[in-house]
Specification:
By secondary structure, the chain is an alpha+beta fold. It is 27% helix and 20% strand. The chain has three helices and three strands. The chain is globular and about 40 Å long. It comes from Neorhizobium phenanthreniclasticum.
Length: 109
């Protein structure tokens, strides 16, 4: 599963391609084909993404890690995926020429 920094709709698509989760130019097609749905081969933004939480600047990354932890420990309630083994979180922020990006992979093999 993946939780990506999706401050804008296009950001999610660009990040899917930048991380190699979709081939360049195909993220929108993969999304429409259900690849990133809860029952797809790579569930993404299962909690609805940043905008569902008001995009809490400074806390976004922590919230994504918390969602990954909930999923991996089987505690995500109605959003619970079927037996997730790994989770990827991606967060970014900052201003021009002062950016930070964090990618975390959790779980076993």
């Amino acid at each position: 599963m993946a939780e990506l920094h999706d401050c804008f709709s296009i950001t999610e698509l660009v990040t899917l391609e930048d991380l190699g989760l979709s081939t360049e130019g195909r993220a929108w097609k993969d999304m429409l084909d259900g690849l990133y749905d809860a029952d797809g081969s790579l569930p993404c933004q299962i909690d609805g993404g940043l905008k569902c939480f008001g995009h809490p600047v400074g806390a976004s990354g922590l919230r994504m890690l918390y969602e990954a932890w909930l999923q991996l420990t089987g505690q995500a309630g109605k959003r619970q995926l079927r037996d997730p083994k790994q989770a990827l979180t991606h967060n970014l922020g900052g201003g021009p020429a002062q950016n930070v990006c964090s990618i975390t992979i959790l779980g076993g093999t």
